[in-house]
Write a structure and sequence with these properties.
By secondary structure, this protein is an all-beta fold. The chain is about 0% helix and about 50% strand. The chain has a 24-stranded parallel sheet that branches.
């Protein structure tokens, strides 16, 4: 990498990128490894490797409002690992396998439709940022993924009324504020999570906020194991095997 901006820009529907490697030994500011054009959908990014050199505002893969399946990436030294434009409602966004080390957001899903995250390891800087930011996405599927060393492990915004995520076999460790946060989503499901905090005051293992009709199945080292907002009058959660 020799200049600020995207190293690889994808403009083609259905493009396939395999085994690309991007490094930033010269500490170029604000680097982006791969960036999709708005119309680039159905892209496959396989075994992409990047070291962003720990630069602020750096991006591993910026999908913008396009869509891609990202498989077995190894991304480190970036602010955001894989993300979309915050208002993107794209379908077909998937991150499968691999590892992401990021200082701000590991995976950011914007307002995407039915995104999928599976078998990914996401690590952060300590008590800051969000590992898997569900944001305002609808019907997200998060399966067998590991998140550690963030302020928030996996969470939506506190204003999202979208269909809630289905989170299965997530391992969330060393998070300072919230392990899993569901916002005011509807019908979220959290099954067999393993969530461990850092004994931080006012932290919560699973923060329901104002989620309606959530189903929860198990959390340690938090001030609150499962918590909801005091003003929540929606359909309460069903808690299995606490």
């Amino acid at each position: 990498m020799s200049a600020t901006g995207a190293t690889v820009t994808v403009n083609t529907v259905g493009a396939m990128l395999r085994r690309l490697k991007v490094v930033n030994p010269n500490a170029v500011p604000r680097p982006t490894g791969i960036q999709l054009a708005a119309a680039a959908t159905g892209v496959v990014i396989d075994r992409f490797t990047m070291d962003g050199g720990d630069q602020a505002s750096s991006f591993g893969i910026n999908l913008t409002t396009g869509s891609a399946r990202v498989a077995d990436a190894a991304i480190s030294g970036v602010a955001t690992g894989v993300g979309v434009t915050s208002t993107s409602t794209a379908a077909g966004v998937a991150v499968q396998g691999g590892s992401i080390q990021a200082s701000l957001t590991g995976i950011g899903l914007g307002a995407t439709t039915a995104p999928a995250v599976a078998d990914v390891t996401v690590s952060g800087p300590g008590n800051a940022g969000t590992g898997i930011d569900l944001a305002n996405s609808s019907g997200a599927q998060v399966t067998s993924s590991s998140v550690s060393d963030f302020s928030r492990g996996i969470g939506t915004t506190n204003t999202s009324t979208a269909a809630g995520p289905d989170i299965t076999d997530a391992v969330v460790t060393r998070v300072g504020r919230e392990g899993i946060s569901l916002g005011p989503t509807d019908g979220a499901r959290v099954t067999t999570p393993q969530i461990t905090g850092t004994d931080t005051a006012t932290s919560a293992g699973i923060q329901l906020y104002r989620a309606t009709a959530a189903v929860l199945d198990r959390v340690s080292h938090f001030s609150y194991g499962v918590a909801t907002n005091f003003a929540d009058t929606g359909a309460g959660p069903r808690i299995v095997s606490p």
